[in-house]
C-alpha cells in the first residue's frame, strides 16, 4: 500500500490538465438535532441539553473539457468557522478528491444499521477503538469511475501526507510534527460492491508509514494497521447489518495492544412513520504483557467491552422524534465498569 501515494500523484497531474470552468451552482443542505441526554458511570449521574447542527454549502459545475468539479464546506462545530472541506474533480478516468478532515475510506462502520443511526455510531457512552480512517486528517483520494467494474464495485485509494490533525486547512499553509514515532503518513484502500439487490458489502485496510526508528526491537516499536469488513442486507421493511474490524495502533514503545470488534444489528420499519432497531457491539482488547523475570514468554490479557442499544424513531411533518438507550459492560476496556446512556431527540433536516 506504500506505492499508492505515487499512483495518486500521477493521476492528479493527469486530471489537472484542465481549462477554465463554467459558472457553478450553489446549494445549502443540513439539519439540526436537539437532544436531552442522561448518562454516567454506574449511574445516571450526568444530564445535558444541547443542539447540534450541520450545514453543507455545496458548489458544483463543469469544466469546458467535460470534467466536473464539486466544492463543499461543512459547518458542524461551534468552535470552527470552516470545519470540513472537500474539492473533487471528476474525469473519465475517475475522481480526484482533496479532503480536509473529510472523506471517510474505512469500512469499520459500514455494517451498522439503526432507526436513528448505526449502533454506537449514534449513541455510545463508551470509547470504541475500531480502525484507522483518513477522514481524521487531511488527505487526497482517487475513486474509480461509476459503473466501470461489475456488481457496482467501486474502489477508493487514499493517502495522508501528514498525520497531524487540523493542519494545512488553508492554501499554502505548512506545519511540522514533533514526533514521527507512531507514523507520519497513512495509506488506505477501500472497496465496495452491491452484488445483489438489497445487499452492500464494504472492506478496507490501512497502514501507517514513515515512523522514525523502525525497526526498533529495544522499544518494540510497531507500525499501525487496521482492516474492516461490513455488510448490510435490506429486504422490505427489515435491514440487517454485520461488521468486523481488527485494529493495531502504532506504538512508539512498550507492549502491543490490538482490538477485535464485532457489530450486529437489525432495524424494522413498523410503518412509514415508525422504526425500531436493536444492536450488539463488542470490542475485544488484547493487551500483551512484557515477559516477566524467569519466564520464557509474555502473556496477553483480554477485556471484552459490550454495548447493547435500542432505538425508536418516529417521523412526522418533516421532523424525527427519537429515543435511544445504550448499556455498556466493561466500558472503556475497564473490567467491571458499566455505563448507560439515554437520548431523547428532535431532528429536522433541510
Describe the structure.
The chain has about 350 residues and is mainly beta. It has one domain: Porin. Helix content is about 5%, strand content about 50%. It contains one helix and 16 strands. It has a 16-stranded antiparallel barrel. It is globular, with a radius of gyration of 22 Å. About 0% of the residues have low confidence.
Task: Please tag this protein with its features.
350 residues, mainly beta, Porin, 16-stranded antiparallel β-barrel
Helix proportion: under 10%
Strand order of the largest sheet: 1-2-3-4-5-6-7-8-9-10-11-12-13-14-15-16
Report the β-strand fraction as a percent range.
over 45%
Overall number of structural domains: 1
Can you tell me the residue ranges where pLDDT is under 50 for at least 5 consecutive residues? 16-21
Main sheet record: 16 strands, antiparallel, barrel
Number of helices: 1
The computed structural class is: mainly beta
| Shape type | globular
Q: What is the average of the pLDDT values?
A: 84
Element-level helix/strand string: HEEEEEEEEEEEEEEEE
User: How does CATH name the architecture?
Assistant: Beta Barrel
List the helices and strands and how they pair.
Blueprint: H1 4-15, E1 25-41, E2 46-62, E3 68-75, E4 84-91, E5 94-100, E6 138-143, E7 154-160, E8 185-193, E9 199-209, E10 225-235, E11 238-248, E12 257-269, E13 274-289, E14 299-316, E15 319-329, E16 338-349
Antiparallel strand pairs: 1-2, 1-16, 2-3, 3-4, 4-5, 5-6, 6-7, 7-8, 8-9, 9-10, 10-11, 11-12, 12-13, 13-14, 14-15, 15-16
